[in-house]
Write the structure tokens for this entry.
Amino acid sequence: MAQANEVVLVTGGGSGMGRETARRFAARGAQVALFDVNTAGMEETAQGFDSVHAWSVDVTDFAAVKAAVAEVEERLGPVDKLYNAAAIMPFGILTEQDNGIIHKQMAINYGGLVNITQAVLPGMLQRGRGDFVSFASMAGWIPMLKTGAYTATKFAVRAFTETLYHENLNSGVRFACVCPPAVATPLLKQGQATDWPKMLDGEQGDPIAPAVVIDAIEDCLARGKFFVYPTRDAKIGVFMRRLFPGLIWKQVHQVEGF
Ligand SMILES: NC(=O)c1ccc[n+]([C@@H]2O[C@H](COP(=O)([O-])OP(=O)(O)OC[C@H]3O[C@@H](n4cnc5c(N)ncnc54)[C@H](O)[C@@H]3O)[C@@H](O)[C@H]2O)c1
């Protein structure tokens, strides 16, 4: 639960799970700072709340991220909770996908996490409290055909977050690394507009609602569980990947037809 006047910083707060997070905490009385490049989306997120504040920040720009965090802390107070949800997800076969797009995904999905971490986490560690939430994905465990560039970013997010967690055990800061299956947000349209793998149609069931993921995060933080698997199938998928990666690849090749 958020306490009134808690400060919650959400990257990617102009859409999807970032928006769900922001509005949920604002409804509980928190001051919420959104960092996003989608200004129209941030306006929609803030609708009906005076306590949701938007910063147009590209998370790949470390100087801009640091300056915006300093402004947030001056205007609203120290950040109590950080939800890093900013990401993009164009798909494609690795030898065909635009070189710049592959690098851009890493810069936003992973590089953005690095930037916001270095701007926010030292303060939390100094205060000895805070929630640090990083959005990886089931794609952070299970590579597939056509999703390689995105998957690489989510493997990086998972490794970075897991290391951070272990480097700061007993610091008082709670860490969560979120590994959802497909979630019904605009992000899916980016994948669908590029080279969508058949595996993601039907094989994993319908996309789940953003609220299910945010519920699971809160539940795991409260129980001290680092990895957040919002559905039973997500947990089973990761288990299968760890024990039987060859079986998953066999199925992927069968479904994709190459
Ligand atoms: N939707 C899914 O199926 C799914 C599944 C697993 C994990 N995830 C992860 O969950 C997180 C949230 O995803 P979502 O589905 O809510 O996505 P979304 O597309 O709805 O929202 C992502 C937001 O990030 C913002 N963003 C993109 N580039 C940015 C940049 N350079 N600087 C600042 N903001 C930027 C976008 O403008 C957008 O508002 C992401 O990390 C995503 O990879 C999503």
The first helix runs from residue 16 to 27.
